[in-house]
């Protein structure tokens, strides 16, 4: 029965995914799956028909869900009655979170808090079920503006949210309670628990305690969270089967010990689990764990038995039918993939009597099961995670989780007795986090593979299934599948080395510049500028937990998605913060072999943090000037500027003339009209097929004589959406279009990508 239900779950997955991603590749995979069912599993034509019908049912469920997911608003509305339906998130001077409107539509609220007093008042006032009048405007969420980046618009749509509501004012004095259902009461209890931990537990441990007890990771230090993610330990911070098993087991044991009958304890646990599901945040892993436990105890109550495989398949299909969009949730994918793999491989690790060996094999199985998902979403995996989980799983399941619950409970009853326990718990978390931080710097802590193409994802999944199915049957077959998987991973790791394609990307970093150049066959990876933001002094209360940074949030994920393990050159055109403001974060978190700066501008960089970090990391620093050049294969680069000391930093920009993909590229940094005139007088024959427009298209660059001389076919403008400077200037756009030059601009087009093979290539925009 379990086997058939699992196969039906696979068909259900095909049905849901076909609604969004039906293409030739997927049709081929479905056909192969049906052939496998007929030839290897031995299903009859009637049974195959059942699978096809199930695919149709789940395709219909996904279509119906999508049909219902529409908005009643037009985007012109300005007055709303909003109800807080989810825990509001106050971060510095920002209030955001999901709210419901008076028309029953879900909105993403964003509101700027103006004073510290208002922030303190909101922290006490806000709760779920509070309904308030508000004024503001609706905005369409942004799509992903860079290749392989997070698509926020799609994420919100899959949660039934079409608009971001930017509130100018919220009348908190006129707020009213709207109903007080059991669910709302439980969710408000969760908020009170989170607030209590924030108030009484130290900063180093409060975020972890909230994650373990209430499933809230928002206050975990960003560095610690990144370390846990890189090492494959972040699942320990998500409430899952580990927590549910511990709590239900503890409750069942305590109930029996005090004299409650088994039947009554089963009923009590069946009542407790839905409450705990809400109390812990109802994430996909929590829902999966609680539903599996509820199904187990419900059948136990009626003295029925069902295998773990049948249980997980039933829960999976039930969730997918009622909420098809859960399929695209990373937590949902990881939770079911890992749990399914452990259940299906139980006969493997049960062969080994030693608990440590069992834990090591379970850890290996879990890491392998998560591998395709992690590669698809995060582009890297940690092989040290297999060994670290052997240490950290017992640490969290036996020590930190129970200790956190006991400490919170005692502190609620007897604060004076609970305080020493909090200190011990805090010390334990500090030690474990320091250990994770130290290990995260080791060579195998995180290995970048890049985002696998569809065929590679398919082959990886097939090889993993083959490995699980043959592990217990034939050692020789197991070695074959293991060898296939290793070959696939090695190929994916070296995919860039085998690629004959080159790329030039104008990365959308907002109001700044960043250009990525990838040469064929991994002959060179160059980044010209890092983007960056101008920062202003801000009061302590208004500072947010995580500041946006173009290196961490845009550039490094893009590099990893392309399978780039290092940068050969980081070229900083000049010392403006919108061109090199994220250099520090980039070289801290990514391998850079050489940093190139312009001649006569060394004093502008001397006191900057990234220079001392580069020195400590022994990164080569090169000063370049007019006349320098280098070539790699068919690609050639010539430095046209700087040629002398300039008073204006913009005119001291490094200007490069590059030959790439059969085109000549003039990359001008922020060079202005004065620099353009000097360039024309020195290089009277200068022409370029592609012009990277200087200074984000401001009126101080791209003069008419300059454009007439270059005879460019296309112009690229790196500029922020709705920027405060009014870039690009209308006169510049008029001059470019008047000369018949095709204009690409990141504020309207997102990242601009030119992919080429030998001397031919094509441009494409990230935004449609």
Textual characterization of the structure:
- The protein has 768 residues and is α/β, with parallel strands linked by helices.
- Among the domains are: 2-68; 79-179; 499-536 and 546-765, Ribonuclease Z/Hydroxyacylglutathione hydrolase-like (Metallo-beta-lactamase, Chain A, 4-Layer Sandwich), CATH 3.60.15.10.
- The chain has 29 helices and 24 strands.
- The strands form four sheets. Strands 15-14-13-12-11-10-23-24 form an eight-stranded mixed beta sheet, with no helix packed on it. Strands 16-17-18-19-20-21-22 form a seven-stranded mixed beta sheet. A five-stranded mixed barrel has the order 1-3-4-6-5.
- Strand 20 (690-692), helix 27 (704-710) and strand 21 form a beta-alpha-beta unit.
- Helix 11 crosses helix 12 and helix 16 runs antiparallel to helix 17 (415-439).
- It is globular.
- The two termini are 47 Å apart.
- One of its GO terms (cellular component) is plasma membrane.
- It is a multi-pass membrane protein.
- Keywords: Cell membrane, Membrane, Transmembrane, Transmembrane helix.
- It is found in: Cell membrane.
């Amino acid at each position: 029965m379990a086997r058939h239900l699992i196969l039906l779950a696979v068909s259900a997955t095909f049905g849901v995914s076909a609604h969004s991603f039906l293409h030739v590749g997927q049709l081929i995979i479905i056909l192969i799956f049906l052939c496998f069912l007929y030839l290897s599993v031995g299903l009859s034509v009637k049974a195959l028909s059942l699978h096809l019908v199930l695919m149709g049912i789940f395709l219909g469920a996904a279509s119906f869900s999508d049909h219902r997911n529409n908005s009643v608003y037009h985007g012109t509305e300005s007055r709303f009655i909003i109800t807080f339906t989810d825990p509001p998130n106050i971060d510095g001077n920002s209030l955001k979170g999901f709210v419901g409107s008076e028309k029953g539509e879900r909105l993403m609220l964003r509101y700027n808090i103006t004073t510290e007093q208002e922030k303190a008042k909101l922290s006490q006032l806000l709760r779920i079920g509070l309904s308030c009048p508000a004024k503001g405007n609706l905005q369409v969420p942004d799509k992903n503006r860079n290749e392989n980046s997070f698509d926020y618009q799609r994420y919100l749509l899959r949660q039934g949210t079409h608009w971001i509501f930017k509130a100018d004012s919220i009348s908190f004095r006129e707020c009213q309670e709207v109903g007080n259902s059991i669910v709302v009461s439980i969710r408000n209890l969760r908020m009170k628990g989170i607030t209590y931990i924030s108030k009484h537990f130290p900063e180093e441990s409060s975020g972890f305690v909230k994650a373990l007890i209430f499933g809230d990771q928002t206050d975990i230090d960003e560095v610690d969270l990144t370390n846990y993610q890189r090492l494959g330990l972040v699942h320990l911070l998500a409430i899952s089967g580990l927590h549910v098993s511990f709590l239900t087991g503890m409750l069942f044991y305590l109930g029996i010990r005090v004299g409650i009958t088994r039947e009554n304890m089963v009923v009590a646990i069946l009542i407790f689990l839905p409450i705990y599901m809400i109390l812990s945040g109802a994430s996909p892993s929590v829902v999966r764990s609680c539903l599996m436990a509820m199904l187990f105890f419900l059948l136990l109550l009626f003295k029925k038995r069902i295998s773990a495989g049948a249980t997980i398949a039933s829960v999976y299909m039930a969730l997918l039918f009622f909420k098809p969009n859960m399929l695209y949730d990373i937590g949902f994918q990881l939770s079911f993939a890992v749990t399914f793999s452990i259940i299906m491989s139980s006969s493997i690790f049960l062969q080994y009597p030693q608990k440590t060996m069992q834990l090591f094999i379970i850890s290996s199985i879990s890491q392998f099961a998560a591998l395709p998902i992690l590669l698809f979403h995060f582009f890297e995996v940690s092989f040290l995670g297999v060994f670290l989980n052997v240490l950290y799983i017992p640490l969290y399941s036996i020590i930190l989780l129970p200790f956190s619950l006991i400490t919170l409970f005692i502190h609620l009853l007897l604060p004076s007795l609970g305080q020493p326990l909090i200190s011990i718990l805090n010390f334990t978390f500090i030690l474990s986090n320091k250990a994770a931080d130290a290990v995260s710097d080791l060579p195998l802590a995180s290995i970048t593979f890049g985002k696998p193409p569809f065929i590679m994802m398919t082959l990886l999944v097939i090889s993993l299934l083959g490995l699980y199915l043959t592990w217990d049957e034939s050692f020789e077959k197991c070695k074959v599948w293991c060898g296939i998987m290793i070959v696939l991973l090695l190929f994916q790791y070296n995919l860039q080395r085998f690629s004959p394609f080159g790329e030039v990307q104008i990365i959308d970093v907002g109001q700044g510049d960043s250009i990525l150049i990838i040469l064929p066959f991994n002959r060179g990876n160059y980044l010209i500028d890092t983007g960056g933001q101008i920062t202003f002094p801000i009061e302590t209360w208004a500072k947010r937990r995580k500041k946006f940074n173009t290196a961490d949030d845009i550039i490094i994920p893009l590099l990893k998605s392309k399978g780039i393990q290092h940068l050969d050159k980081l070229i900083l055109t000049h010392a403006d913060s919108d061109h090199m403001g994220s250099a520090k974060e980039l070289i801290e978190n990514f391998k850079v072999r050489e940093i190139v700066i312009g001649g006569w501008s060394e004093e502008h960089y001397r006191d900057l943090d990234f220079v001392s970090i580069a020195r400590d990391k022994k990164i080569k620093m090169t000063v370049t000037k007019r006349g320098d050049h280098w070539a790699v294969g068919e690609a050639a680069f010539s430095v046209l500027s700087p040629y002398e000391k300039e008073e204006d930093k913009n005119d001291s920009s490094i200007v490069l003339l590059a030959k790439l993909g059969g085109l000549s590229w003039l990359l001008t940094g922020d060079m202005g009209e004065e620099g353009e005139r000097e360039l024309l007088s020195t290089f009277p024959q200068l022409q370029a097929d592609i012009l990277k427009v200087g200074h984000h298209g401001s009126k101080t660059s791209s003069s008419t004589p300059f454009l007439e001389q270059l005879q460019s076919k296309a112009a690229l403008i790196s500029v922020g959406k709705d920027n405060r400077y009014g870039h690009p200037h209308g006169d510049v756009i008029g001059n470019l279009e008047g000369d018949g030059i095709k204009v690409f601009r990141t504020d309207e087009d997102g990242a601009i990508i030119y992919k080429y093979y030998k001397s031919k290539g094509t441009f494409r925009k990230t935004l449609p």
